[in-house]
Design a protein that fits this description.
Elements lengths: L4 H13 L2 H8 L3 H12 L7 E4 L2 E4 L1 H27 L5 E8 L6 H11 L3 E8 L1 H9 L5 E4 L9 E14 L12 H6 L1 E5 L4 H12 L6 E5 L2 H9 L5 E4 L4 H5 L4 E3 L6 E9 L7 H21 L1 H9 L1
Parallel strand pairs: 3-4, 3-5, 7-8
Antiparallel strand pairs: 1-2, 5-11, 6-9, 6-10, 6-11
Helix pairs in contact: 1-2, 1-3, 1-4, 2-3, 5-11
């Protein structure tokens, strides 16, 4: 056996995704490069690690066993690197955060300074839907989670980061945009929702229910970015977080509409389980937020404050 660490990393990533394409994207490698290294790794075993069924890649039972061992081996190698840095007086380890999809416009700004200060820290940030974020938290797979609506079934500790403000937006190209927007007009307009389980969808549905609005035409899309592009294209209106539409407002491809009961205001919360035993890295990050949160909001989100005050 003469496999390399790089082959182990590639095999583990392919095993996690059950896809060479997705593995190559996450590893920032070409598909042929991943395929070649996977073949070189496979050539060292007399038993197949993977199989293709119906054009889909699956791990064999043997492959699953090897993937478990490979993950453990890579974890131990990371531990060696972190211990070396720690003995050199540096903070070292992993910081794992699950973030709801709209939170990708927020969380990186609260991380960049911390990561710049601590080169020995590796960041693992999973941007996904709210249900997966909460599941990751419950399963102790992450240190923290970023949400705009607190889970009702969990007791969590939290740090409020900043406001999350949602407005009704539409494209200037929409026919309805040339008429005065009111509750009756909104009821007739096509509306674009996030998928079920999304906090943004929940906020939008609560608003419509509070105004007794029965939607005549609606569609659902699975990401904030997809909703934004659909609204820009003129497919309909949506209630969206201001934090994710800065460029579209500045270049005049989206317009905010005022209606009674809007905007909707919540908070971005970094949450964790009360029983969570923090690593030195997680503890250092919480300390960093306590010291730098106000400065980050002032320097990175000044446009957000100015825009909301101008409306």
């Amino acid at each position: 056996m003469n496999y390399t660490l790089n082959q182990l990393r590639i095999f583990v990533k392919v095993a996690q995704n059950q896809s060479i394409t997705k593995a190559s994207e996450e590893l920032h490698l070409t598909q042929p490069a991943v395929s070649i290294q996977l073949k070189n790794f496979q050539d060292q075993f007399p038993i197949p690690l993977t199989e293709v069924v119906g054009r889909r890649l699956f791990l064999t039972e043997f492959g699953k066993e090897i993937a478990i061992v490979a993950e453990k081996a890579l974890s131990e190698i990371h531990a060696i690197n972190y211990k070396t840095l720690e003995y050199g007086g540096k903070l070292a380890g992993q910081l794992k955060i699950a973030v709801v999809s709209t939170g990708k416009y927020v969380m990186p700004y609260f991380l960049s300074g911390f990561m710049a200060e601590h080169s020995g820290v590796d960041l693992i940030m999973d941007v996904t839907n709210k249900a997966s974020v909460i599941q990751n938290l419950e399963n102790n797979e992450v240190d923290f989670a970023l949400v705009s609506v607190l889970p009702k079934h969990l007791t969590v500790d939290r740090v409020e980061l900043m406001e999350n403000i949602l407005y009704l937006v539409g494209s200037h190209d929409l026919g309805f945009a040339r008429t005065k927007m009111d509750i009756s007009t909104l009821a007739k307009a096509p509306l674009i929702f996030r998928e079920n389980g999304s906090a943004t969808r929940m906020a939008m549905e609560n608003y419509l229910n509070s105004k007794n609005i029965t939607v005549s035409k609606k569609m659902a899309l699975t990401s904030n970015e997809a909703v934004k592009q659909a609204v820009v294209a003129g497919l309909g209106y949506s209630i969206m977080p201001l934090i994710g539409i800065k460029n579209e407002l500045m270049n005049d491809s989206l317009k905010i509409y005022s209606l009674p009961g809007l905007p909707i205001k919540t908070n971005w919360n970094l949450i964790w389980m009360p029983s969570k035993r923090f690593s030195p890295v997680a503890m250092a990050f919480l300390k960093y937020l306590g010291e730098e949160k106000k400065n980050i909001i002032k320097s990175k989100f000044d446009w957000f404050t100015q825009y909301t005050e101008s409306l």
